[in-house]
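Private note to self, pasted from the team thread so I don't lose it. Backbone tokens:
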């Protein structure tokens, strides 16, 4: 029951987070699939006020079609950035010439300051940039006027509706506005700084085919990886390699150091390197074929799928072998054979998985060095001042180092330690050391080094607990198979198998009893008395439509670093 206690604690933290949720996020709903006759700010506002009462809605904002405006802004920013870089290169070259001349005249004098330490100057806007700024202002005004006039070419079927009090937000989310469930879908919005507006412009009802094709690609990746990982699983020990390849046995006899290197973790390194490509492939598929509406939803999706890839390709691959179809047919014909399969193959690989956990300590320490960010920083530093180079090199690659990937990997490592804890108890010592290292490294990175990301209030944590409980099923099945194979009678295996019933009930309660997404209405009544966090943005208006200068007035909390406190590691990992 410890998992449920931990989840209750998490729910308490979630409740505090929800109470501190600032407007506009706490008082806003996202409405999708709006009918064409309601696609305007005023009509959406009138509809909800007619249902919830007059003067309940503060603002309604239909997401605008702004592809042409974004293209102009991108062109202007690119041109301005290139001009600033050229100016910086000229200034740096001039400073270097001055330093050489100064050194030639007086070699004993102190050298001038390093020109790279300068922040660089901003180039004056030329005629082309001024014309682009004027075009942007004109187009921005036309888009706003077209939206007010209700021109369908500039409006989408999605809207952000902000209420005057939080209780109307919760009531609206429980409503169904029409008899057609495909119309006026109401959900909780993502953080204003995390919205993917391009996904909101698309019609969700027309995206099912793209999503289906995306899942088809995920299945193709799964089936394509299985033979590769299955081949790697045949080399998880020196004995298996020597049995399969006689020349390897001769090589190991001639060069004993090769055997030590191989047995020390080369196969583990190859497997880890192969599996590190999965998050990048999954993220690419989800980004191109799914309507996610926010970057954090993208991370949640990667977390769920990457965990199952790790379970199948790293933990169960020795049982499945290279033919998933044959193994599946075998289990369909004889379901109880799953215990025999697990007990026959997994205990032989306990040392492999201990080496796997040891290697993860090195992986975590590499994350601490942040080699990719450093490399990009040095590349940008050749043509930009240090401050600009640092900004361009952040954040770290979210496809491979995002919160979803880290959460899935951490949960999987815990499941590995739990599954083999009875067969190889020392794996718990290795796991404890590994998680201690991860706590320190990621606690430091999140609190002090990495740029702050939009907050979801611990949404990754319930999925981690869910995945751990699913891993317990594997542990029970493995131990049942081991007892069935080793014990003289079937009674110990039957007792172990009965734990599946308890685990199934616990898993069901975990999935259906706990409510953590929203606050109860009794707490929302006193919403004004709660201390609120700083909002990342003041509204859900698209950034490209904000008037020039308003961007400077926004509270960019994501770019700010958290305060350094003595308890800097709390809640970081």
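Design output:
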């Amino acid at each position: 029951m410890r998992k449920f206690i931990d989840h209750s604690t998490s729910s308490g933290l979630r409740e505090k987070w929800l109470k501190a949720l600032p407007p506009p996020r706490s008082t806003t709903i996202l409405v999708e699939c709006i009918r064409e006759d309601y696609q305007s700010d005023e009509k959406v506002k009138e509809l909800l006020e007619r249902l919830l009462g007059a003067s309940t809605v503060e603002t309604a904002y239909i997401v605008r079609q702004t592809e042409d405006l974004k293209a102009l802004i991108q062109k202007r920013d690119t041109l301005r950035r290139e001009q600033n870089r050229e100016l910086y290169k000229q200034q740096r070259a001039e400073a270097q010439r001055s330093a050489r001349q100064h050194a030639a005249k007086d070699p004993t004098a102190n050298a001038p300051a390093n020109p790279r330490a300068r922040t660089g100057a901003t180039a004056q806007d030329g005629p082309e940039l001024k014309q682009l700024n004027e075009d942007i202002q004109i187009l921005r005004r036309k888009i706003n006027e077209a939206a007010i006039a209700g021109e369908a070419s500039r409006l989408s079927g999605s809207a952000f509706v902000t209420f005057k009090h939080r209780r109307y937000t919760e009531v609206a989310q429980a409503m169904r506005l029409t008899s057609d469930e495909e119309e006026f879908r109401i959900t909780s919005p993502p953080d204003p700084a995390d919205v993917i507006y391009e996904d909101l412009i698309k019609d969700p009802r027309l995206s099912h085919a793209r999503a289906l094709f995306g899942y088809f690609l995920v299945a193709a990746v799964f089936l394509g990886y299985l033979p590769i990982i299955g081949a790697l699983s045949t080399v998880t020990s020196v004995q298996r390699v020597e049995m399969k390849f006689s020349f390897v046995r001769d090589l190991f006899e001639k060069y004993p150091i090769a055997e030590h290197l191989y047995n020390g973790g080369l196969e583990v390194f190859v497997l880890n390197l192969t599996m590190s490509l999965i998050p990048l492939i999954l993220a690419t598929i989800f980004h191109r074929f799914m309507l996610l509406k926010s970057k954090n939803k993208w991370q949640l999706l990667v977390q769920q799928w990457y965990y199952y890839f790790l379970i199948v390709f790293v933990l169960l691959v020795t049982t499945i072998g290279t033919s998933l179809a044959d193994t599946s047919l075998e289990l369909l014909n004889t379901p109880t054979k799953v215990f025999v399969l697990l007990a026959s193959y997994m205990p032989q690989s306990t040392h492999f998985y201990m080496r796997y956990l040891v290697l993860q300590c090195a992986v975590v320490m590499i994350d601490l060095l942040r080699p990719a960010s450093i490399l990009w920083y040095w590349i940008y530093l050749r043509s930009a001042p240090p401050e600009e180079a640092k900004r361009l090199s952040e954040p770290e690659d979210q496809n491979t180092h995002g919160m979803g990937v880290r959460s899935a990997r951490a949960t999987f490592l815990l499941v590995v330690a739990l599954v083999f804890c009875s067969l190889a108890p020392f794996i718990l010592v290795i796991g404890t050391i590994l998680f201690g290292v991860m706590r320190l490294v990621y606690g430091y990175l999140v609190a002090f080094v990495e740029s702050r990301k939009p907050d979801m209030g611990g949404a990754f944590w319930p999925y981690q607990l869910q995945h751990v409980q699913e891993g317990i099923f594997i542990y029970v099945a493995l131990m049942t198979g081991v007892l069935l194979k080793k014990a003289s009678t079937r009674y110990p295996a039957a007792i172990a198998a009965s734990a599946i019933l308890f685990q199934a009930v616990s898993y069901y309660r975990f999935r259906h009893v706990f409510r953590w997404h929203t606050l109860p209405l009794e707490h929302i009544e006193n919403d004004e008395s709660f201390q609120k966090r700083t909002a990342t943005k003041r509204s859900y208006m698209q950034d490209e439509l904000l008037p020039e200068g308003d961007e400077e007035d926004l509270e960019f909390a994501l770019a700010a670093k958290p305060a350094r406190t003595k308890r800097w590691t709390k809640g970081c990992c």
